[in-house]
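so i finally got all the pieces together for this one. its two components total, 340 residues if u count the protein bits. some of the lines might not be protein, just check the labels. i wanna see the whole assembly predicted at once instead of chain by chain like last time, that was a mess tbh
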Amino acid sequence: MFDSVPARALAVVLLLAGIAGLCVWHGTLAPNAAVGAYPDEGDFLATPDAYLGDLVTVGGTVVDTDPLTIEVEGATGERVSIRVTGVDDAVTDGSDLRVFGTLTDERTVDARNSFTVPRTGYWYTYSVSFLSGLWVLWRIVRHWRYDPSVAGLTPRSAAERGSLGTDRLRRWGDD
Amino acid sequence: MPDLLAHALLAYVLARLLSWRIDWVTTPYVTAAMAGAFIPDIQKVKLLVPDWRVEALLGLPFDWFGWATLGGAVLSVLIGVAVVSPRVRWRAGAALSLGAASHLLADALLRSPSGRSFDVLWPLSRWHPPTPGLYLSTEPTPSVVVGAVALVVWVAHRRRERREA
């Protein structure tokens, strides 16, 4: 079942549609503190009155330390400033502050818990993740091949993998 | 977990250890597990195309994060199952699932200000499990730790292979 090329192509299309459907569905979910799904800036910037006094999560770049202010992305990508009170730790400009606290007015959160993420951390993560992507892509090319007779990817045998490159490449590719 | 390196290395360690026990888990399936470990992070395209842009385009609510849940991972693994040769379908599906599951589990341990993780089992459940907050997604520690384990496993595997040869 589902071995023919048209059936498998149809399956891929339906699965992609299913993933898009999941993303739309996830977008319709309302906050629900009972299950730990606290409202975030996307929720309380849209309808602040609905969440005043409630516990919310918010994260953004520190643009001012006195008074402590972070900038978050609004509903259409615009920058919105949020005041954060109740943070005792030293916070530096430009770092990323992630906050859990009470929405005391429509643009102010009184922190119950917070921590900062240094900017450099993101560069580390993005570059290392990108290189990891190349590494795994390289492994896929070395360990799998496209078999036109079944129109699908198929594992290469150990002998095939060995004949792909030089000894040095084999050492690194065949682990 | 944090960066994709840690996720890829974690999947490598798990799949390589299984390959010592299960004959059909050969190197290509170890690689498939590592590819599966990338699945939940496909939603990072949100950095290039934010949710609000897609919403404007579709006229519907949209949240890339739906992809980084159990439901998104299952559908993505099934895409992998559809594109491999039907002969190796279930093996590839199992390897991809192992990688994707290890990613979701590692992400559920990430630090969060509310102490609650994300809806990892969605759409089966909306529950956000409590997280021990072991690491941030931006620190190298998990990659270093898992990398050290992966190195030991890699060396051990090479010795096994030489013994068998």
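Chain A has a mean pLDDT of 90.
Residues 119-143 of chain A form the longest helix (25 residues).
anyway lmk what u think
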